């Protein structure tokens, strides 16, 4: 199974590379009047998000399980990423 581009970007050149973009996207979705619709639109319009959702489906629809498994495959400490997103 391939690693989603979004995780590759997070690790490329250190984990901090794509964190800013990810935080911005998270904040945009959170602040939307309808966060679920905003997330659906982001998935439809962004091939990377489509890949992420496909990967999550491979882990039974459990995004946490998918995230931790992919971090383990890449040798990345998931807590480092989660701490950066706080």
Walk me through what this model shows.
With 86 residues, this protein is mainly alpha-helical. The chain has one domain. It contains six helices and no strands. It has helices at 5-11, 19-31, 35-45, 47-58, 63-74, 78-84. It is globular and about 35 Å long.
Q: How many separate helices?
A: 6
Number of domains: 1
Beta-strand percent range = under 5%
Largest sheet: none
Please give the share of residues in helix: over 70%
What is the β-strand count? 0
The helix/strand order is HHHHHH
Shape: globular
Secondary-structure content class: mainly alpha
Q: List low-pLDDT spans.
A: none
CA(first)-CA(last) distance: 28 Å
Task: Please tell me the overall pLDDT.
Answer: 81
Calculate Rg over CA atoms. 13 Å
SSE topology:
Elements: H1 5-11, H2 19-31, H3 35-45, H4 47-58, H5 63-74, H6 78-84
Helix pairs in contact: 2-3, 3-4, 4-5
